[in-house]
Amino acid sequence: MKDVRYYLALPYTVVLRRDEDGDFVARVDELPGCAAHGKSPEEALANLEEAKQLWISESLDAGQTIPEPAAEEALPSGKWVQRVPRSLHRKLAVLARREGVSLNQLVTAMMSEAVGAKKAERVSTRPPRRTFASVSVAAYKPPLSGQRDRHEADKQRYPHKR
């Protein structure tokens, strides 16, 4: 029979992030609701170990099934075929030529940068960046006098741009 020590020795997935108050939150992905807070990463992880032990003990006492971590998969080959619109392919090829690198090097660098930014965003204390374009109010310039009628129509059509 599997006991608490068995489950504590398993390589569960731990996620550590900052919350909106600047504290650290640690959680175990495979154990729903198993989380802990701390003022530092070390404190959050230490609190998580205690929470994990209590979570597993209570689940065993209640006769509940305790999820185990999935076996680690071998790394993929690093190669795939990706279909993109021809216009995007052309733009990427032109950019790669301009940078003096191969298309593969360019796309790999771009994806690495995007994934790195996304990962940093999760640990950041700042709110997540918006991924859509927005118009700056400071950049808005009123139309010339001959364009006023069109401008008024646009204001009615796009009230959020005021």
Helices and strands in order:
Layout: H1 4-8, E1 14-18, E2 24-28, E3 35-38, H2 41-61, H3 86-99, H4 103-123, H5 148-157
Antiparallel strand pairs: 1-2, 2-3
How much is the average pLDDT? Answer: 80
Please give the count of helices.
5
Query: What is the CATH class designation of the domain at 4-61?
Result: Alpha Beta
Class of secondary structure makeup: mainly alpha
Query: What general outline do the C-alpha atoms trace?
Result: elongated
The amount of beta strand, in percent, is: 5-15%
> Order of strands across the widest beta sheet?
1-2-3
Distance between the termini: 67 Å
- Poorly predicted tracts of residues: 125-148
Order of helices and strands: HEEEHHHH
Radius of gyration: 26 Å
CATH topology of the domain at 4-61: Double Stranded RNA Binding Domain
Report the CATH architecture of the domain at 4-61. 2-Layer Sandwich
Describe the protein in words.
By secondary structure, this protein is mainly alpha-helical. Helix content is 44%, strand content 9%. The chain has helices spanning 4-8, 41-61, 86-99, 103-123, 148-157; strands at residues 14-18, 24-28, 35-38. A hairpin with a 6-residue loop joins β2 (24-28) and β3 (35-38).
